[in-house]
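ok, trying the design again with the full structure, not the truncated one.
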């Protein structure tokens, strides 16, 4: 196949490209990335000679169209996104640009090239927060985003679903729970804990840290995306989770234990505006494709800490 992978100099996309090239050496991989502050092209250095990198914006429809034509693209795997909730609360414009206008740009390319498969990577946050005891979300659960970031992702998802219905484009959507692992942007929760703890600085935790999240190691996520790419059905939504909810405070303490740092580094700060209480996904849709998570939370945390320790202490 000839793949266009967007946002592949970022956290999850870089892991997808590294693993895909290692396992599918006959595929041609084209990477399109705007290289914003969360991206690092060096993540792709191990496969530099096995893929082509293009610096650009998915919202640039002319560029996307040219790439598709020049490289006879069969599949678009869309990881490109603005993702940090706090930043979306401060300024939603970049999120609308990439997560909405950018997605529409890809849709237009697929409309013009109906054989192309668009695999769009979304998030569990489009469902909004759940209360304790409420059932996990399914692909049929109504979208109820609670912040500008998740609203922009929900808009992108709905645009794709509308294009499938209206124009018959080929598309599949994945929604995943919280990811962690190497390459994650430093502003995110787990890298912040590691970076601060290594300096013996206070670790900010919103509210009382009782919000619940389900953490999935990044390569388990990319393996799930591969499963959807290879075995999924057009027009379907696949939910990906580790089925292991944890309170944020529990997660912070686990990481401090791995780092050998005291729990009193935790500092509770004013809660985020519109902070969703809990996320949970029913992962039966992805498990029907033969996928199961392979990396336990404990092992994943150790791998994550080891990578960031090298980054912050070298």
């Amino acid at each position: 196949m000839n793949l266009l992978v967007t946002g592949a100099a970022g956290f999850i996309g870089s892991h997808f490209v590294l693993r895909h090239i290692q396992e599918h050496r006959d595929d041609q991989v084209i990477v399109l990335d705007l290289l914003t502050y969360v991206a690092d092209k060096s993540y792709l250095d191990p496969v530099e000679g096995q893929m082509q990198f293009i610096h650009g914006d998915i919202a640039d429809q002319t560029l996307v169209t040219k790439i598709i034509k020049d490289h006879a693209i069969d599949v678009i795997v869309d990881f490109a996104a603005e993702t940090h909730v706090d930043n979306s609360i401060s300024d939603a414009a970049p999120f609308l640009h990439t997560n909405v206008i950018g997605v529409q740009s890809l849709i237009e390319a697929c409309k013009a090239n109906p054989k192309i498969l668009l695999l769009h990577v979304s998030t569990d946050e489009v469902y909004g927060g759940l209360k304790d005891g409420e059932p996990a979300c399914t692909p049929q659960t109504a979208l109820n985003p609670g912040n500008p970031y998740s609203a922009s992702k929900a808009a992108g998802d709905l645009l794709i679903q509308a294009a499938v219905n209206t124009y018959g484009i080929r598309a599949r959507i994945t929604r995943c729970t919280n990811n962690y692992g190497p390459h994650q942007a430093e502003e995110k929760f787990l890298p912040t804990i590691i970076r601060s703890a290594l300096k013996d600085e206070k670790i900010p935790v919103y509210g009382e840290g009782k919000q619940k999240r389900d953490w999935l190691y990044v390569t388990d996520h990319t393996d799930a995306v591969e499963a959807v790419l290879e075995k999924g059905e057009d027009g379907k939504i696949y939910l990906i989770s580790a089925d292991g909810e944890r309170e944020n405070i529990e997660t912070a303490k686990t990481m401090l234990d791995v780092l050998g740092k005291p729990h009193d580094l935790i500092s509770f700060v004013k809660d985020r505006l519109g902070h969703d209480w809990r996320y949970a996904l029913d992962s039966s849709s992805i498990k029907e494709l033969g996928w199961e998570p392979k990396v336990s939370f404990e092992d994943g945390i150790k791998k994550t800490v080891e990578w960031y320790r090298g980054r912050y202490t070298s």
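Keeping the full-length input from now on. DSSP finds ten helices and twelve strands in the chain.
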